[in-house]
Amino acid sequence: MNIHNVSLTISAVQPKQYPHDDIPEIAFAGRSNVGKSSFINKVLNRKSLARTSSKPGKTATINFFNIDDCLNFVDLPGYGFARVSKEEKKKWGEMIETYLNSRGNLSQVILLVDSRHAPTPDDHMMLNFIRAVCDRVVIVASKIDKLKKSERTDSLRRIITELKLNGDDVIIPFSAVTGEGADMFWDYVNEVIMNDCEE
C-alpha cells in the first residue's frame, strides 16, 4: 500500500467523538507496553505519529489515525497495567468494550502479544472479545527480534497453542526494530480489508 497522508484524527473517550466516516478501521489491542504504538509507527513509516513510552499505561484514550482517507488505524488503551487504579482500569475497559461493540466500520481487531512471554489472562479475555466481533483472529507477536532464532519457533507455537488459533487465524512475527513482519501485515490488509480501496 502506497501511503501518502497520515494524521491523528482524534483522541476519543466516548462514541460521540469517534470520526464520522464510513471507511474501514483496524483496531490494535494489547497489554500495556506490548508495542502497539511502535507497531503503528513502523508499518506507517512514521517515527513519532503514535506516542511511545517506556512507561506502561501511556495510552489512555482511543486514538484514531486516518490513512489517505481510505483506512483508519485505531490504537486502543493498553490493559493489564498494575499501577493504574481500579477506577481507571474499569474506565479503560468500558471504553474498549464500547468501541468494540458499537463501531460499525470496524473491520478487524489485531491483538499484539509479547513473543517473549506466554499470553496473559487479559490476552485471553481480549481474544474472546475479538472472536465475538471478527471473523478471524489476527495476532502480532511483537518484539520477535529479542528472541534467538532457535527460540522463535517455540514461541510462536506456544502462542498458537495457548490462544487456540485455527486455520483461518493469522499470526505475524513482528519487530519494530528491523521491520520484520510489516510486509506480511500489509499483505493481509490489502488482501482482506482493502480490496475496494484504491492505493
List keywords for this structure.
199 residues; Rossmann fold; 7-stranded mixed β-sheet; 5 helices; globular; alpha/beta; single chain; 32% helix
Please provide a brief summary of the model.
The chain has 199 residues and is of the alpha/beta class. Helix content is 32%, strand content 21%.
Describe the structure.
This protein has 199 residues and is α/β, with parallel strands linked by helices. It has one domain: P-loop containing nucleotide triphosphate hydrolases (Rossmann fold, 3-Layer(aba) Sandwich). Helices cover 32% and strands 21% of the residues. It has 5 helices and 7 strands, in the order ββαββαβαβαβα. A 7-stranded mixed beta sheet has the order 1-3-4-2-5-6-7, sandwiched between helices. Strand 5, helix 3 and strand 6 form a beta-alpha-beta unit. It is globular. The model has no long low-confidence stretch (mean pLDDT 88).
The biggest sheet amounts to: 7 strands, mixed
Distance between the termini: 6 Å
Instruction: Write the CATH homologous superfamily.
Output: P-loop containing nucleotide triphosphate hydrolases
Please report the number of helical segments.
5
What share of residues are in beta strands?
A: 15-25%
Helix/sheet category: alpha/beta
- Which strand order spans the largest sheet, edge to edge or round the barrel? 1-3-4-2-5-6-7
| Tally of distinct domains | 1
- Summarize the helix and strand pattern as letters: EEHEEHEHEHEH
List the uncertain runs.
none
CATH architecture: 3-Layer(aba) Sandwich
The radius of gyration over CA amounts to: 16 Å
